[in-house]
Amino acid sequence: AGSGARADMRTEISTAAAFVTRPLRAAGGGGEEQLRCFRECLQEAMREHYKHHWFPLVPSKGSGYRCIRINHKMDPLIGKAAGMIGLSHERLFQLLPSELTLWVDPFEVSYRIGEDGSICVLYESPQPGGKAAKQLESRTSCKEEWRIGRSSPSKSYNMMTVSS
Question: What sequence ranges are listed for the domain Anti-proliferative protein (predicted)?
Fold first, then answer.
């Protein structure tokens, strides 16, 4: 029965790992085989890290714990996966944004580049049995904490999509 909860996070984790892998591929940060290994190692590290911190019934619970962060320090999960393919932290900092926050929550994966950037949703899925209003509430969890002390109104982050 324990594996059911783990299977639930598969889409969210693969979305997040693919997102982190994309700039590496674009910048020639490794061969296709290396990048596949990086993505799989990152997914495995995330699965392991989130195993007891995934609450589909309360998606915002544990949001800070599942937050992947690059902020002049490399996120340990990304660093671990990069180490598996021999990418140094220095090289990662060249390839990835220097300020990146990635939230991996049940039913939603979103990110922000820069401290004051817009929050963009990568993946969103309706919550089973959830009410739309409840979903909007849960969206303020970890993301709201980052806004404390900001001058911009907190409503400015509704839904933004990015086209590449």
Answer: 96-115
Instruction: Tell me which CATH homologous superfamily contains domain 9-124.
Output: Anti-proliferative protein, N-terminal domain (3.90.640.90)
Q: What's the predicted TM-score (pTM) here?
A: 0.74
- The pair of three-digit structure tokens given for residue 65, joined into one six-digit string: 């714990």
Please spell the DSSP secondary structure of 49-112, one letter per residue. HHTTS--TTSTTTTTTTT-EEEESS--HHHHHHHHHTT--HHHHHHHS-SEEEEEEETTEEEEE
3-state helix, strand, coil in the chain (%, to 5): 45, 15, 40
- Which residues does residue 112 pair with via DSSP β-bridges, in sequence order? 101
Q: Cα–Cα distance between 127 and 123 in angstroms, integer? A: 12
- Provide the pLDDT for residue 60: 93
Rounded to whole angstroms, the Cα distance separating 88 from 91 reads 5
- Boundaries of every domain in the chain: 9-124
Task: Indicate the DSSP class of residue 149.
Answer: T
